[in-house]
């Protein structure tokens, strides 16, 4: 059944939250800018059945998803911090202070599955509309965009042959015990010891011993796999599909070579790809390529889409611009890209990249130089948001996470906090003094601490001498 309507009846003996908080808080202002009714209508379309208990309020779920990705929180953390923060409760539509969690954290997982990629794109589209209503961007700003790609890493361990083989054996042994299959040997003592020893040999650069131990471990995993495969007929039909899939992935890991393409890097996430980063600290990244589109002037995210298969950057440009056009309801006219997009053309869009010489005026050259503005935006999304690690499952999880972390409306709130500290907004002398003292201390920490202490000690001595006189 669809979401229930919010309660509007007032309680005579309780004071509303809006009468107790600062209405100038950025989250309160942002809550007034977002069209929650339109969001609720769009999210309610995912409910097909009209029976059963009414679902949770769509505004509550949308607000929790916004807060979760703005402050880089897990499902459990965002639910429990919601109880502690009255501004979060006002943002999600609560009238009175709540002292209990609004939902079970697992409800967010079910809502994400129900919404899908199209549903979370509605959340991103609403942040773009709210930015226009707030004057953060102009209507013409979406006609000039910057497009770039990055890697969204998956939540997997670093893939090594020994670890992958040991994980295969563990899952096969557990599956056999779950289905009542009797194994000749499970190697519960020998295989973990071999996997650990392989890592030690690799660290000591004793590669002959490492390869010998790896061959032994591979043979042990193969014996367990074949033992389970011979007994497949004894497994119920309903459970046989999952077991056959596990055996297929194990065969794939056993047969893959170091130089093979489309290797399996995680037993639970076969969609993970290896993308070369080319830096000494991190030669490779394991995840999926993501295309990001921002406005040229303000840097507001207009679109983000996962690109499985590690395609050439130029082949992703048309799809990225199409998504930005759908979400912003305006077709981009100019796209600024890097040299990785050279040679690509999109109908109706002028594509510029560094290195162009013919017909490039001084104004165009300045516009192209601003392409690098998207790099710190991506860095902040990875450092402050959830772009650095994707915990959602499967290819659909990649597509949804690419859109969810781009819900950057709350970056405006952070900018407001940085530009106009709450002490100065409230005009409280004590708070203003405390804020300036904190600012002084941060500056002192960045400069020579010894000279700062020396000056402070001299001033204290002068004050003491004046008091003595």
UniProtKB/TrEMBL annotation:
InterPro entries: Transpos_IS5-like (IPR047710), Transposase_11 (IPR002559), Transposase_InsH_N (IPR008490). Residues 279-346 form the Transposase IS4-like domain. Residues 17-114 form the Transposase InsH N-terminal domain. It holds the Pfam family DUF772. GO terms for biological process: DNA transposition. Coiled coil: none annotated. GO terms for molecular function: DNA binding; transposase activity. This is Transposase. It comes from blood disease bacterium R229.
């Amino acid at each position: 059944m669809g979401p229930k309507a919010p309660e509007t009846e007032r309680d005579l003996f309780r004071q509303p939250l809006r009468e107790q908080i600062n209405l100038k808080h950025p989250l309160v202002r942002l809550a007034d800018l977002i069209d929650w009714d339109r969001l609720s209508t769009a999210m309610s379309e995912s409910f097909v059945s009209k029976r059963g208990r009414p679902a949770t309020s769509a505004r509550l779920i949308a607000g929790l998803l916004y807060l979760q990705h703005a402050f880089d929180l897990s499902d459990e953390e965002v639910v429990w911090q919601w109880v502690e923060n009255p501004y979060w409760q006002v943002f999600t539509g609560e009238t009175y202070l709540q002292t209990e969690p609004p939902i079970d954290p697992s409800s967010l997982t079910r809502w994400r599955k129900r919404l899908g990629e199209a549903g979370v794109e509605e959340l991103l589209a609403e942040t773009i509309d709210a930015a226009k209503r707030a004057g953060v961007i102009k209507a013409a700003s979406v006609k000039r965009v910057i497009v770039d790609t990055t890697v969204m890493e998956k939540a997997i361990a670093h893939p090594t042959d020994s670890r992958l083989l040991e994980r295969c054996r563990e899952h096969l042994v557990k599956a056999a015990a779950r289905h009542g299959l009797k194994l000749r040997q499970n190697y519960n003592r020998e295989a973990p010891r071999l996997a650990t020893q392989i890592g030690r040999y690799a660290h000591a650069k004793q590669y002959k011993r490492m390869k010998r131990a790896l061959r032994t471990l591979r043979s042990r995993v193969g014996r367990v796999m074949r033992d389970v495969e011979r007994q497949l007929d004894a497994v119920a039909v309903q459970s046989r599909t999952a077991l056959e899939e596990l055996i297929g992935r194990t065969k794939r890991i056993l047969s893959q070579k170091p130089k093979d393409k489309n290797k399996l890097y995680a037993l639970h996430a076969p969609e993970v790809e290896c993308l070369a980063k080319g830096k000494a600290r991190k030669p490779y990244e394991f995840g999926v390529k993501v295309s990001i589109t921002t406005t040229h002037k303000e840097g507001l995210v207009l679109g983000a889409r996962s690109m499985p298969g590690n395609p050439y950057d130029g082949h992703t440009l048309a799809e990225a611009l199409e998504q930005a056009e759908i979400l912003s309801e305006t077709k981009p006219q100019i796209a600024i890209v890097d040299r990785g997009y050279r040679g690509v053309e999109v109908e109706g869009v002028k594509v510029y990249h560094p290195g162009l010489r013919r017909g490039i005026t001084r104004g165009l050259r300045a516009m192209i130089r601003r392409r690098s503005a998207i790099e710190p935006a991506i860095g902040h999304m990875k450092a402050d948001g959830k772009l650095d690690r994707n915990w959602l499952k499967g290819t659909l999880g990649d597509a949804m996470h690419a859109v969810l972390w781009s819900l950057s409306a709350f970056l405006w709130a952070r900018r407001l906090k940085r530009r106009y500290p709450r002490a100065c907004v409230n005009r409280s002398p004590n708070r203003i003094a405390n804020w300036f003292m904190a600012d002084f201390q941060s500056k002192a920490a960045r400069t020579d601490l010894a000279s700062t202490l020396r000056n402070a000690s001299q001033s204290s001595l002068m004050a003491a001498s004046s008091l003595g006189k």
